[in-house]
């Protein structure tokens, strides 16, 4: 699916994030599995990640992120009429984490649902929210991307535990006077689904014995380097833009080598590229909003900047969006 937006302008008017307090370094991981800091940094760029405690679930980090996004937009939970949580690690399948958040936030008139698209979930969710806002079905949406993949990792499997961390981000989306989303591209290729899977998580073969995510890292790496480039090129072309027009590039934070490959192939200046994988690892659906927040904090993300975001993940799925960032432009 690809499209340049033609309807009313819709943008992001609030942004908030939250990560668990507990830090796990590469040295900490080396005490659990046969690995070391040198291997992890060289192959992934990751130095540390945040890991939820036994008691913490997704909503425990999604709620502070949501509250921060609402405060940033200057609105209340009751002002939201759509609440989407993109995740593969909800508190439980039902009640949905979106319904839990709607209750906690006082968003009593919001339609609320969880959305599954692997690490690409946040990209799918903002595209859906855009559609509902542009059509007039919704007036103001809260979109949350977050995961606590630490809960579904096999902590004896060194090939996966070194990659992932926990985190969440949230954005308020509404109509804006200027700027806003220029277009979206979303895709899925189920033939690659077997390379990144979580077999015991649903109605097939659910016997409780296979309840960890599994990954063929080399195949996911090949897929990621391909789609991070093709998806970005597609959305730029569809919107009549080039890489030179991009001010801020926000790639999914899976692995520094995947980001470096995309940057080199696309010809995007490294200083325009947001990289925080070294401190959070791959936070799945939390990755892009956490990177947006870091870009804003370091002054790169400001009014009028053209931002390219590209995510990829389980499914296999991918998604890109182009947005002209707006501060204080809500209608
Ligand atoms: N520590 C030390 N050695 C390790 C570790 C580790 N943690 N993990 C694997 N190794 C070893 C392997 O056993 C192998 O040893 P061998 O040569 O003796 O067989 C060697 O290191 C090389 O292993 P590779 O798998 O070939 O390493 P590679 O360079 O491909 O890097 C990695 C592995 C980092 C997983 C890479 O393939 C990758 O990043 N893939 C993409 C993963 C990804 O992005 N997944 C998330 C998708 S998003 C979502 O939806 C969840």
Look at the structure and name the CATH superfamily. Thiolase/Chalcone synthase
By CATH, the topology is: Peroxisomal Thiolase, Chain A, domain 1
Q: Output the strand order for the largest sheet.
A: 1-9-14-13-12
The number of distinct β-strands equals 14
User: How many separate helices?
Assistant: 10
Number of individual domains = 1
Class inferred from helices and paired strands = alpha+beta
Bound molecules: acetyl coenzyme *A
Radius of gyration: 18 Å
Question: Can you describe this structure?
Answer:
This protein has 331 residues and is α+β, with helices and mostly antiparallel strands. It has one domain: Peroxisomal Thiolase, Chain A, domain 1. It is 31% helix and 24% strand. It has a five-stranded mixed sheet with strand order 1-9-14-13-12, with helices on both faces. Helix 4 (97-105) links the parallel strand 5 and strand 6 (111-115). Helix 3 crosses helix 4 (97-105) and helix 7 (217-238) runs parallel beside helix 8 (256-266). The model has no long low-confidence stretch (mean pLDDT 96). Residues 35, 39, 43-44, 118-119, 158-159, 162-163, 196, 215, 217-218, 220-221, 224, 254-255, 282, 284, 313-314 line the site of acetyl coenzyme *A. Acetyl coenzyme *A is lined by residues 35, 39, 43-44, 118-119, 158-159, 162-163, 196, 215, 217-218, 220-221, 224, 254-255, 282, 284, 313-314.
